[in-house]
Design goal:
Elements: E1 2-5, H1 13-26, E2 31-34, H2 41-49, E3 52-55, H3 57-62, E4 67-70, H4 77-85, E5 89-92, H5 96-111, E6 116-120, H6 126-132, E7 140-142, E8 157-161, H7 167-184, E9 195-197, H8 203-217, E10 221-225, H9 231-243, E11 247-250, E12 267-272, H10 278-293
Parallel strand pairs: 1-12, 2-3, 2-4, 4-5, 6-7, 6-8, 8-9, 10-11, 10-12
This protein binds iron/sulfur cluster (SF4).
The site of iron/sulfur cluster (SF4) has 14 residues, from helix 1, helix 5 and helix 8.
Length: 294
């Protein structure tokens, strides 16, 4: 039996960068983090044992004179205002890709007063709260193709996407808005208000779907390691199981109590989400190898 780890799985660039920043800052002393630094309880626990304290918005409002790390998802302007009012030092670990997206939305909002800014994303997701905040909370969030009916297609539309959404669904949404506009204006381009769409999906994540499916197809069995709070883990796990039905989800190596029933010369693959640390996938691999040699 061989056990291999998917070389494309694990933290994306933005999360790796935020965790590195947290580790560096923890050497200087006490550090708070607004929300879980990553949707993986094991990694959060590791950093908390180093001294990181995870806080929520209520605790942020009460905090005075501390140091607060803002995670890769980014934050709305109101968070920076609270930090400034409370004389907190901000360690801004917002992913540069998210930061650029926030700037584009803010620029569009200020240069097109009254236009509809639409964000394809998950309502309540930290990144989406940060994006909507760039528009004084006026942007419309749509979660799926079915939500396109909520857009007023007779008015200007500026469409963006949360960085971790599906490219395919984004394209379908663009197609549906175009279809509705053509219907309203009987295809008369001259009468149509602007429709700008910006595919702001991070390829760091979208490319992983095909990569993880290819990896899963090569295995007799797959252990997908992810946090139960991670939406990215849920999506990638579904793709993984579609490519290889013999895929199981787990959050910790302790969940493996026996060797899986596969041929003696079988292949086991270990993979994970963009929020899964490499050390955790290695621990799963080591657990399987230990059971094999027991
Ligand atoms: S998925 Fe992309 S945009 Fe989001 S944190 Fe990772 S690198 Fe940044």
């Amino acid at each position: 039996m061989t056990v291999s780890i998917d070389p494309h799985s694990g933290f994306c660039f933005g999360v790796t960068r935020a965790i590195r920043q947290a580790e560096e800052e923890l050497h200087k002393g006490m550090l708070f983090c607004l929300g879980d630094i990553v949707h993986n309880g094991q990694e959060v626990g590791r950093l908390e044992r180093m001294g990181l304290q995870t806080i929520d918005y209520d605790a942020l409002r009460e905090l005075r004179h501390g140091r607060v790390l803002l995670r890769a998802h980014g934050e709305p302007p109101s968070t920076y205002r609270i930090a400034s009012d409370n004389e907190l030092e901000v360690i801004d670990a917002t992913c540069p890709v998210v930061k650029r997206l926030q700037e584009r939305i803010r620029d569009t909002y200020s240069s097109h007063p009254g236009a509809q800014i639409v964000i394809f994303g998950k309502v309540g997701h930290a990144e989406v709260i940060g994006l909507v905040g760039q528009t004084r909370n006026t942007a419309l969030v749509i979660e799926s193709l079915d939500d396109v009916g909520r857009i007023d297609c007779s008015r200007p539309v500026f469409l963006f996407s949360q960085t971790t959404k599906s490219v395919e669904t984004f394209r379908q949404i663009v197609g549906e808005i175009t279809r509705r506009r053509n219907q309203i204006f009987a295809g008369n381009q001259a009468d149509m208000p602007p429709f700008e769409w910006h595919d702001t999906i991070c390829r760091n994540v979208s490319n992983r779907v095909e990569e993880i499916k290819a990896f899963a197809r090569e295995q007799d069995m797959v252990f997908f390691v992810g946090g139960d709070k991670s939406s990215n883990a849920k999506v990638l796990f579904a793709h993984c199981r579609e490519a290889n039905p013999n895929t199981v989800f787990l959050s910790s190596p302790d969940e493996i109590t026996a060797l899986p029933a596969i041929p003696a010369d079988g292949r086991i693959g270990v993979c994970g989400a963009t929020s899964t640390p490499l050390w955790l996938m290695q621990a799963v691999r080591d657990r399987l190898l230990a059971l094999q040699s027991a």
